[in-house]
Amino acid sequence: MSNQMPRPSTPLDTVSTPSKPLNKHLGPLEEGMLLSPVPELRDSSKLHDSPYVEDCTFQQLGTFIHALRDPVHNRVTLELSNNTMVRITIPEIATSELVRRCLQGLKAILPKETAVQVLVKWYNAYNAPGGPSYHSEWNLFVTCLLNMMGYNTERLSWTRHLDFEGSLSPVIAPKKARPSETGSDEDWDYLLSSDYHRNFESHPIAKALRLDPLEVSPSKDDFSQSLSLDSSTLLFSHIPAIFFVLHLIYEELKLNSLMGEGLRSLVVLLVQLARDLKLEAYIDYYYRDYPALVKTSSQTCSIDQVQTGFMLHPSFFSAEPPSIFQWLSSCLKGEGVQPYPYLPGICERSKLVVLSVALYILGDESAVANEASHYLYKITSGEEAFMPSWDCPLLGKLGINAALSLLGQRKPQIEQDDNRCSFKHSSSISSLAEKLVLWMTSVGFTLRDLECLPFGVALPIRDAIYHCREQPASDWPEPVCVLIGRQDLSKQAREGNLQKGKSVSMDPTLLGLGQSSRLLQLCQRTMALPVGRGMFTLFSYHPVPTEQLPIPKLNLTGRAPPRNTTVDLNSGNIDVPPNMACWASFHNGVAAGLKIAPASQIDSAWIVYNKPKIAELANEYAGFLMALGLNGHLTKLATLNIHDYLTKHGSNLVGMSDLNVPEQLYQYMVGGHRRFQAGMHREKHKSPSYQIKEGDTINVDVTCPGATLALAMIYLKTNNRSIADWLKAPDTMYLLDFVKPEFLLLRTLARCLILWDDILPNSKWVNSNVPQIIRENIVSLQAPELPSSEDLSLETLAQAHVYIIAGACLSLGFRFAGSENLAAFQCLTGHYNLETCLSVLLLALAMVMAGSGNLQVLQLCRFMHKKTGGEMNYGFHLAHHMALGLLFLGGGRYSLSTSNSSIAALLCALYPHFPVHSTDNRYHLQALRHLYVLAAEPRLLTPVDVDSNTPCYALIEVTYKGTQWYKEATEELMAPTLLPELHLLKQIRVKGPRYWELLIDLSKGTHHLQLEKSSKIMESNHLVSWKGEIQHSMGTVHKCSIHWSVVLRIPVRDELVHPDQEPEAISAFTSDPALFSFADYFCKPTADLGEKQEILDLFSSILYECVTQENPEMLPTYIAIDQAVRRLERREMSETFELWQIKLVLEFFSSRSHQERMSRNPNRGLFMNSEFLPVMKCTIDNTLDQWLQAGGDVALHSYLSGQPPEESQLGMLSCFLIYHSVPTPAQMAAGGLEGSGNFSELLLRFRRLRLPVRALLRLAPLLLGSPQAMVL
């Protein structure tokens, strides 16, 4: 429809406001109600006169609804017969949560046909134009429901005064109400009889103002005789089932602290139904909950035996009212309990509480294992759930109350003699707490649900959470971490995004250039920079999809003082190859591409978008593509683009021209004489050393390095000594002359990689790789007299010694790569010699200290970086810059792995034969220098404060697994720090007094700690929530505790030191703004507080107790208990809800399960202060005993004898009955207590009723009639 229907709260113009209550016009609802409140217009001439003309444009003559389509929630499109469509919104069936719950209960328990009729009648009444507002929706629902049950709401006293806050629907009130010009006495009586006035009379403000209750004059319309019900109405036969379902909803709402108003509204209806059904146990039950409301309901409606025969009595009905609080109390006391009835989909909170208590208190892990728990009694609808009254022959004689009692006895009973549910010893404390938390999270229980639970019901759950919070598992999902209040772990469990970084340009500014040769030396160093820069900026950048990747330009020019003129390599007379910067540009592109984090969102279009339009930048783009392959992004390239690259650019990029793959493949295929290279490289490749075979012999200068490393990779870490002996250095001078020194380095390296477990970080092992002939004669190199033997070549011995030592040191670097092993570091720093071997040593040092930024290695790198003359060519600069990049790998966030694949990648990247110039690829392809990426792994552990979300320092304890070289060891580190390889660790623990303890057990696996490179750049970004201490001037840690002398009203002695409890001091313990606000508003002292000073001191003590014990969520519980006890002292308890919660709290801490938990773990922190609850209990006992001595015994005696007590005593009497678990008069009569002659006999009989001894001591004088009977 184009326009909305009139709002339900808007009265129609044809209905005026009456001076008398309108519900007197309400009668039984008629069967023939229209589903739509819009009247049917048969005459088209009246269409324009209708007030609903704008809403009924589709109801033209001959037009009808053809189909419904596009339903979304309560909206649907009407497809009309004239090919037009109208979008309408169907009004909701209810907006009040209480009404919605009741409708769901009726729908669940009534037969389908009856339920549909009830919903239709309610829908018509509720959505009629001018219907009730939100606040009067419940009143309208009660009126409709009672009418359908057969009640005459015009004559029922409490329904006559219900306020609808607006005009009633014409469907319910067919008569028009006429306004009254002047007021009348009935108006005043109406106000006195209203719900608002009754609620105000029981409010603490009325008692504080000492307002006496006003007597309401009897209405003229009241009838002295009892009212009767109409048995022909729709729901008359279902009254018992409806009553029981509404009672279960009443119990369900008790578990929601936000539904207090709904409970008070529902209990009035339940009391009326219980009175009419003569259910004394239910009436007594409601009286104990709301004495101030129940006492105002006295009118009953009679149901004779004939009418009783028309009622259907459900088999699930129990004679004793189900009580969720009593069920929990019985579990806490270890008593036998019956299965608690619940409606699926409606009483879900009751089900959750029952199962959680069965698991955590009773220790029954099977309670949550399956849906069919024996702690719950599932109520279902259907004909089998109801039994006609004529099937019971005793109903005609005993009446409805006895009939329902018989039905209640059909439920399965649990033996209650001596069978007590105790805490099972088979389950550990931690397992029960963890299973409870994990199960509650799996069923969707959240912190919001926990905060809505009453504090007594929520206490066992909070206790389990408090236990799990101290030592949670590191692999728990995020909802569990949120529930237990560990925001640090919850944030860690989420998928994090990489922090965007900025590109780093390391281009040098060249000053003081006097010669072109000097410029050439510096350019050699500059061209070797990109490989190291790629290591330093590894995975540190998220590109913008709409922008090209910024690639720093290689600066190969300088400025010459004093005029600061630009100098380049072409300005001098030095012969510079035209392709000198090709591989440098390639490395520059690789370094730029390796900055891209694996988690970056790039696609094929962005890769093609970065393709340069200038031919000179093709080499950089080739390096960029290689980097994308290394970090996993090249797989995103579309197949068409891959084909384009291979067909159009495959033979022009750097790396293809030097290898000449097509020409070499043709040569190997057809054989014959070797074809020479064409083009600019023709003169450079004339050497016959490129032939593998020279006649019938092998050119070992070509084949030896590959064969040596192939053996090392095949037998890597196998400790195969047979193969390792092939690689031993020659032990005679004759054989040494046949092996080049650099081959000795490779042989030593390969042999050590095979004998992996023999590598030790000490000089003795390094020197053990040197043959005996070299060890015996190397000393003579430094001697003043040279050896006389002509068979010894001093140069050969010196070179062999240096290269063998370099090979052993390089293997040491591979063995302890990324470990920061101090012994390996000290061993490597003791060997310096020739330039080549020094570069290898520097790389070995950088591998051991990878990612650590070690100062000594950095100083050595800086020293080597400054050397540009002499033998320092491009290859040496490349090695030094790679060492510097490894030292700060990934900006200090990455380290190296020692897995087999990682060792192979490092061997390819750090191959100890460096190029002589920037275009040298004779012995090793420069592109392979970037394969270190495959060995890099993130291992940075960064603690982040959960409140400020900033990195912080935290002490961690790392436990190493035991190996064949050392036993299990523990080391303390200060995070942020790089962790060792995870397979070497057993566990990691966050320690220190400022933060929560966090244990990461790596024995369960590292899947929760190892973050894939595709998602994060850091190995672990652990978040910690912090615990604070107040640091005093003496440097000691002082934790404040509650001074319960404030609660006990005992003055503090002067010699006792009262702790400094300034509100600002809690900042040392917490950063919660809510706690800061509480301290500011309720704990800050001001002048002239008077009596409020006591409450301020108590609040301050409670606040400090909560924050120092790390359970601030208990602050509302402390305050609620204190406020309830104070109201009890003032005798202002209009309801016993909070007293029930205090009782559950006391029973929980005295329960056997809790005591066994405390005995098993005596060092466990206190969940609640051990002094607070005894003080509260003592105060309650004293208050009730004083009431009992001051006239309360008379009211109690009247109650036990079945007489109505004095109305002024009803509130305290209900508190006494609840707190001391006093049975109902009917239960006491059934127990045969009247005939008891002494206290011993009384005690024996009370045992069957499970009455506490403390209650029996107070009831004994009344039951025995003599105070002397207290003496045994």
UniProtKB/TrEMBL annotation:
Residue span(s) of domain Anaphase-promoting complex subunit 1 C-terminal: 1064-1223
Signal sequence, start to end: none
Record's keyword annotation contains Repeat: yes
Cross-referenced Pfam families: ANAPC1, APC1_3rd, APC1_C, Apc1_MidN
Domain Anaphase-promoting complex subunit 1 middle: residue ranges: 147-381, 409-491
Keywords: Cell cycle, Cell division, Mitosis, Repeat
Residues in Anaphase-promoting complex subunit 1 beta-sandwich domain copies: 939-1010
Family classification: Belongs to the APC1 family.
Protein name: Anaphase promoting complex subunit 1
